[in-house]
Specification:
Largest sheet: 5 strands, antiparallel
Strand content: 15-25%
Number of domains: 1
Pfam family, one: N_methyl
Strand order of the largest sheet: 3-2-1-5-6
Shape: globular
Order of helices and strands: HEEEEEEEEE
Protein name: Prepilin-type N-terminal cleavage/methylation domain-containing protein
Distance between the termini: 70 Å
Organism: Pyxidicoccus fallax
Number of strands: 9
InterPro entries: N_methyl_site, Pilin-like
Length: 235
């Protein structure tokens, strides 16, 4: 065989190649993290908007009470003040979900609704139509909250932005209940009717918001009680 024999890579060359691969991997991971922080809040807002729309449409179509229940700070284990929050969509076909009397076997009440365990109504009572834990988004990139810098205009001008303006108790929670005529009522954590402060439109509307973990993205929703109208703003 003529010519010089092929030699293998030296340790120095291998080290250089591995260093380049490590740098490229670090750059890719940084880009992925930035992408996750950007897309996670957008996806969360889209799903919450879809839940609000579905709740009202389902209530009108099936003449049932449909509850959108908000827990603004639980984690996936249901522990308060340990997570980014969650929401649950429950169809109450028998209009008894908020009754205070002892429920039949297998039937739930708002007072006994305890995620993640006690959340599934009996089949004849309704269905758990959808649910979402904010901690499921990559790197916990979004939570219920408000920065106070996103102001409402139009019919909701003066409405105070909030992660959940109607949520009370421990764990904090509240509910928007859409009815068969398309209207909505609001419940606090104890199951009592919630009447927003203010006059006119503001006395009949609540706010709900999502905030990215870096504080750069915010999505606010306003719900009007009399007609169930939902508006949104973002930055």
């Amino acid at each position: 065989m003529s010519g010089r024999a092929r030699r293998g890579m030296t340790m120095l060359e291998v080290s250089v190649v591995l260093a380049i691969i490590a740098v490229l991997a670090a750059m890719s991971w940084t880009s992925y993290e930035r992408f996750s922080l950007r897309i996670g809040p957008q996806n969360a807002a889209a799903e919450l908007s879809g839940a609000l729309s579905e709740a009202r449409a389902r209530a009108v179509d099936r003449q049932a009470d449909v509850w959108l229940i908000i827990y603004p700070d639980i984690n996936a284990s249901g522990q308060p003040n340990q997570g980014s929050g969650a929401w649950f969509l429950v169809e109450d076909r028998t209009h008894e979900f908020n009754d205070t009397n002892t429920p039949p076997s297998g039937h739930l009440r708002y007072s006994t609704f305890q995620p993640p365990a006690q959340i599934q109504p009996a089949p004849e009572q309704g269905v758990l139509a959808a649910s979402m834990y904010m901690d499921s988004y990559t790197k916990r990139s979004v939570r219920f909250g408000a920065s106070g810098t996103l102001a409402w205009t139009g019919i909701f001008a003066g409405l105070t932005p909030s992660g959940c303006s109607f949520c009370t108790g421990t764990p904090r929670r509240g509910a928007i209940v859409f009815r068969g005529d398309g209207s909505a009522r609001f419940m606090d954590g104890a199951g009592n009717p919630f009447t927003p402060a203010g006059v006119g439109t503001l006395q009949r509307a609540v706010s709900l918001g999502l905030l990215s973990s870096d504080g750069q993205r915010e999505f606010q929703f306003a719900v009007s009680g009399p007609v169930g109208f939902v508006d949104s703003r973002s930055r």
